DNA sequence: AACATCGTTCGACAATGCCGACGCTGCTTT
DNA sequence: AAAGCAGCGTCGGCATTGTCGAACGATGTT
């Protein structure tokens, strides 16, 4: 694995730093954080600025991400085949279920949301496209870790934060559940990331049956889960599971996956 | 302006090529298009891939944009101050007017949409955030060219396609209208880009009164424009103009612009 | 089966980007 | 006010680093 272009690696590190860090960063901040000489960091930043990947506040001289990234990110979505095929089915799933639908792909140590259909009511919602969700505590993530060895490897490396009392962080428990997920073909996460929210997810495969992403339905536990006679929250509703699995199958078929 | 990092410039060119080109491109396509040796192009692509900026189809070996761009693009939005301040006001404007609202900033030779509020009805709409609109034939673009000298300079360089019979492409006419726009403080574009669609836009300024963006309302001419007694389409509705200008003023004030 | 094409690897050369020290400007301090 | 202090930007020498072109192996085409 020889020969990575140094200046490119550093430029990428700078972009990630700007993306993660607070608001804007000065030249010295950047140089310090990455252990570069100021002159070096400046050269990279100047080029990035010239190309539109970073912008510089005229007053303070501080740097932040540039607009070109937004444009390219949009282009990524335009080209994304999985997303294109899934648009209609995700929409149908949201309409039929009345809940939010996410479409995600594995990216580094998390699930990148590439499509988001709003819950079909009028409440205000924030578009999550482009944001990341954890691997260990969401339906999307669980599906991917269960079926994609790469995802499982990334999960091992990640830190598995406990978001709620229901979050499972123990690797053995996660692996056991992954086996069950492979068996039955779908995953659920009830209040494991956000309190009061449950999600159901299923796998999307391409024409060679490789896992390429997952589709999931998100909603309040009161609607997504069954309630026992004692009023307790039970497992997720079987009819919603069927809907999600059908959507996943339909998208996979659109991608050329064999018909089973 | 000495000292731009060559490999970075080339990497940026490759990304733009992948963003503009059709679907996926092979290594030779990329190398040819940019006049690079195959080995050189490969080195850059390998690094870009390692960093997540491009992905490679395992079968065909062809390259396409990578997911990291989507994530960074999202981060750009998160950091964007103008957008953050404008969210509420844009929402109000859409609700009050019942029409689509765009928020745009100058980027290269066009207007980059950084926020998009759907028309508040249930029809299916495509999110335009991250896409570009022309400078010469939209309300957003006209506002920016009228108030931002940089935008006007970019306009001169751009090619000004005639999208409809109403599109104005002559520079003198555009300049004359720009003067009028500066005078009255708002711009309109009626069927100049899309047939049947009219838009009204106004300028957003920062604390030092620099033009930093524009907000516009988009809708069908039947609703956005007045109709004369003979049923002909007239100028845009004055009440909508007032709403748009008030929204722009409110956002500018949030950014720290003086209160007039 | 021979050919063409494509992505990838490799080694040599020198161009290129890296580094550290030095201006410069704007702001706070004494 | 003068001095000090950060902060960004620039410059030139050095060697590291990226570039180039040719050759390789795999794939699929004629």
From TrEMBL, chains A, B:
Coiled-coil stretches: none
Domain IclR-ED: 68-257
Gene3D superfamilies: 3.30.450.40, Winged helix-like DNA-binding domain superfamily/Winged helix DNA-binding domain
InterPro entries registered for this protein in UniProt: GAF-like_dom_sf, HTH_MetabolicPath_Reg, Tscrpt_reg_IclR_C, Tscrpt_reg_IclR_N, WH-like_DNA-bd_sf, WH_DNA-bd_sf
SUPFAM superfamilies: GAF domain-like, Winged helix' DNA-binding domain
Keyword Magnesium: no
Isomerase found in the keyword field: no
Keywords in alphabetical order: Activator, DNA-binding, Glycerol metabolism, Transcription, Transcription regulation
Molecular function terms from GO: DNA binding; DNA-binding transcription factor activity
Function: May be an activator protein for the gylABX operon.
Protein name: Glycerol operon regulatory protein
Lineage: Bacteria, Bacillati, Actinomycetota, Actinomycetes, Kitasatosporales
């Amino acid at each position: 694995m020889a020969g990575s272009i140094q200046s490119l690696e550093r430029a990428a590190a700078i972009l990630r730093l700007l993306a993660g860090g607070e608001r804007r960063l000065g030249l010295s901040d950047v140089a310090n954080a990455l252990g570069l000489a100021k002159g070096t960091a400046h050269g990279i930043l100047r080029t990035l600025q010239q190309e539109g990947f970073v912008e510089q506040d005229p007053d303070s001289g501080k740097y932040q991400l540039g607009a070109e990234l937004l444009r390219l990110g949009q282009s990524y979505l335009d080209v994304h085949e999985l997303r294109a095929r899934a648009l209609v089915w995700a929409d149908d799933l949201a309409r039929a279920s009345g809940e939010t639908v996410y479409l995600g792909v594995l990216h580094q140590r998390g699930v990148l949301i590439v499509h988001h259909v709003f819950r079909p009511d009028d409440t205000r919602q924030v578009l999550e496209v482009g944001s990341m969700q954890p691997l260990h505590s969401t339906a999307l993530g669980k599906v991917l870790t269960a079926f994609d060895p790469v995802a499982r490897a990334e999960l091992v490396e990640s830190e598995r934060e406990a978001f709620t009392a229901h979050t499972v962080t123990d690797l053995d428990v996660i692996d056991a559940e992954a086996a069950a997920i492979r068996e039955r073909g779908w995953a659920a996460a009830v209040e494991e990331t956000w309190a009061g929210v449950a999600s159901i997810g299923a796998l999307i495969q391409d024409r060679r049956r490789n896992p390429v992403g997952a589709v999931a339905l998100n909603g309040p536990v009161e609607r997504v889960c069954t309630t026992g006679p004692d009023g307790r929250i039970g497992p997720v509703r079987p009819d919603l599971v069927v809907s999600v699995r059908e959507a996943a199958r339909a998208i996979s078929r659109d991608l050329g996956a064999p018909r089973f």
